[in-house]
Amino acid sequence: KAGVTQTPRYLIKTRGQQVTLSCSPISGHRSVSWYQQTPGQGLQFLFEYFSETQRNKGNFPGRFSGRQFSNSRSEMNVSTLELGDSALYLCASSLGPGTGSEQYFGPGTRLTVT
Amino acid sequence: QKEVEQDPGPLSVPEGAIVSLNCTYSNSAFQYFMWYRQYSRKGPELLMYTYSSGNKEDGRFTAQVDKSSKYISLFIRDSQPSDSATYLCAMSGGYSSASKIIFGSGTRLSIRP
């Protein structure tokens, strides 16, 4: 069974631009969560989607948004990029909603904002 | 105080040694406890997943949860150079819509051949 896939793997953007990252979950998984990982803050939860609905949201500004499609694929968008948004963005999928289900991570998208 | 505390290391041990990795936490609502392994420039890989207190063994890996002390451990027996990675503990309160997974900062482990 294929794992979680994320595209693109690497991205370089300029401050003020916007970016869209994509995540395809493991087949049969309906929940997708997004995380930001930086050396200083570690892994921080962004949001979780299940059945096209956002179930949970972390403490990030409104510039960070996401959505989920009917096939469970998910996208996250960051508008008006700031230098501090440079990070590894990770997507994780699980069978069901909430954190009682085992989550499997993708390889991440490394975003560099210059 | 962070909800989950994890010694960042680095921790360096010789090949074949038993490795002990630990996390402490403050939120007594946590019920699910996980350990992830993350190699450089890769996503975290789920190693162990346990519910509530007790031990769980999988090959060379043993996870222990002591909810009374709010302390979890991961033991690696017969450590190999391929075990060199960052190990992240994680925990959550469960299925409620408000529950989130909280990660430790990770411990960098190096196994010397």
Write the layout of secondary structure elements.
The complex is a heterodimer of chains A (114) and B (113).
Chain A lengths: L4 E3 L2 E4 L5 E6 L6 E8 L3 E9 L2 E5 L6 E5 L5 E5 L8 E8 L9 E2 L3 E5 L1
Parallel strand pairs in A: 2-11
Antiparallel strand pairs in A: 1-3, 3-8, 4-5, 4-9, 5-6, 7-8, 9-10, 9-11
Chain B lengths: L3 E3 L4 E4 L4 E7 L6 E7 L6 E7 L2 E5 L2 E6 L4 E6 L8 E8 L9 E2 L3 E6 L1
Parallel strand pairs in B: 2-11
Antiparallel strand pairs in B: 1-3, 3-8, 4-5, 4-9, 6-7, 7-8, 9-10, 9-11
Run of helices and strands of chain B: EEEEEEEEEEE
Portion of residues within helices of chain B: under 10%
First-last Cα distance of chain A: 37 Å
How many separate helices of chain B?
0
Overview of the structural elements:
- The complex is a heterodimer of chains A (114) and B (113).
- With 114 residues, chain A is an all-beta fold.
- Chain A is 0% helix and 53% strand.
- Chain A contains no helices and 11 strands.
- In chain A, strands 2, 4, 5, 6, 9, 10 and 11 form a 7-stranded mixed sheet that branches. A 4-stranded antiparallel sheet of chain A has the order 1-3-8-7, with no helix packed on it.
- In chain A, strand 4 (31-38) and strand 5 (42-50) form a beta hairpin.
- Chain A is globular, with a radius of gyration of 13 Å.
- The relative contact order of chain A is 0.33.
- The mean pLDDT of chain A is 93.
- Chain B is mainly β.
- Helix content of chain B is 0%, strand content 54%.
- Chain B is globular.
- The model of chain B has no long low-confidence stretch (mean pLDDT 91).
- Classes of the chains: A mainly beta (114), B mainly beta (113).
- At the A-B interface, strand 5 and strand 10 of A face strand 4, strand 5, strand 9 and strand 10 of B.
